[in-house]
Write a structure and sequence with these properties.
With about 170 residues, this protein is an all-alpha fold. It has 5 helices and no strands. The protein has one domain: Ferritin, core subunit, four-helix bundle (Ferritin, Up-down Bundle), CATH 1.20.1260.
Length: about 170
């Protein structure tokens, strides 16, 4: 039985829907990191965000290739609930106008934690070994991104709201 304090139980998704959700999350993450690579307060942060944008773009391409190779006729409309499995906050990010850099960092930390949890959960739920391995790898990379972001946030003196949340 699921722990009542964990995130709500998600319906069973087909592998192609999981790939679609993952690709959506990676697309949003790549975009957000690209914005931050241009708007971050220090050159070191800008480089880190540019590198992370490249990593997320590569993840998206891998997911989309699997989707195209194995499920060429797949087509989904993602609901807001589907999207919330892998992102926190608005899809678009306008640092310094609509959202401050500390708020952006907090949102990214929450998103990386959420994304890593999504991949970890579904790496155990999918039957295909190729997807299990990829989702496991992406869960580990999401956790690594979370720790890298948390370190950057702390260096910038930004309180990490994710520290006050229980682990997913």
């Amino acid at each position: 039985m699921a722990d009542q304090h964990s995130s709500p139980v998600q319906p069973d998704f087909s592998p192609d829907k999981l790939l679609t959700i993952g690709a959506y999350g990676e697309t949003v993450a790549a975009y957000r990191y690209l914005v931050l690579s241009e708007k971050a307060p220090t050159e070191d942060n800008r480089r880190v965000f540019a590198d992370m944008a490249d990593e997320e773009q590569e993840h998206k391409q891998r997911l989309q290739k699997l989707l195209a190779d194995h499920y060429p006729d797949s087509d989904f409309f993602l609901t807001p609930q589907d999207k919330e499995l892998v992102i926190t906050g608005p899809r678009l990010l306008d640092v310094h106008r609509e959202i401050s850099f500390p708020q952006a960092m907090s949102m990214l930390l929450q998103t990386e934690r959420k994304t890593a949890g999504f991949y970890a959960r579904y790496s155990k739920a999918v039957a295909q070994r190729e997807l299990q391995a990829l989702f496991h790898e992406l869960a580990e990379e999401g956790a690594e991104h979370f720790h890298r972001l948390r370190s950057l946030a702390r260096q910038a003196g930004i309180e990490d709201s994710a520290d006050h949340q229980s682990s997913s």
